[in-house]
Amino acid sequence: MGKRKKQAKVLRIFRKIHRTTGALLFIFFFFISITGLLLGWKKNTNGAILPESQKGTSTELVEWLSVDSLHTIACTTLHNSVSQNLSLELDRIDIRKDKGMVKFVFVDQYYEVQLDGATGDVLSVGQRKSDFLENVHDGSILDRYLGTSGIIKLIYTSIMGISLLMFTITGFWLWYGPKRMRQSGRSSQNPSQKNTMGTVS
Where is the composition biased (Polar residues) (predicted)? Predict the structure, then answer.
């Protein structure tokens, strides 16, 4: 019975860890699951979450305008099409040679401007809600607004990663532990003895 009691003790500890982890981090697991689901579908929402990538007129880089010229067009387009109050700080430039198009992604409110690389024509102006969801998903939304250069994301992802690992391990043991205890209990029982019947004279 010593082994069985030890298994029961381990099971109680794992159940407590599982329950406590789930209760304390419920809201974070909720946001991670929802944002993860939406991010998985971002390219299949008809532009609702992520603006669809448009096609330009040429895939030959030698025919393209200079990046500086395209950048000027993108900045002018952002202010004229959305708001003069938006910052022109760039998050990144995404060159899609195979589509003949370049994206200028701005920091302020996650806006992007898609331009034809060869002509500079505006192909699309949209808000990248997927980038916001990614920032919420990995906790970098706080770094973005507090200017903490990634430290919050590092701490958050470390805590959530370890917690999810613990949640998985303890959840598996809560399923497997009782099975093992039952098997251990059966193996420790004495084999049943056969009843013998005396002969009647």
Answer: 184-201
Q: How many CB atoms lie within 10 A of CB 160?
A: 19
Q: What pTM was computed for the model?
A: 0.76
Structural domain includes residue 9: yes
Give pLDDT, residue 113: 98
Percent of the chain topping pLDDT 70: 88
Provide the residue range defining the domain that includes 153.
Answer: 1-47+137-187
Last residue of a domain, one of 79, 104, 127: 127
Tell me which DSSP letter residue 81 carries.
Answer: H
Q: Is residue 84 part of a domain?
A: yes
Extract the tokens encoding 113.
Answer: 């401007």
Helix, strand or coil for residue 70? Answer: helix
Condensed to tens digits (0 to 9), the pLDDT of residues 124-148 reads 999 999 999 999 999 999 998 898 9
Q: Where does a domain end: 75, 98, 127? A: 127
Helix or strand (DSSP H, E) at 13: helix 2-24
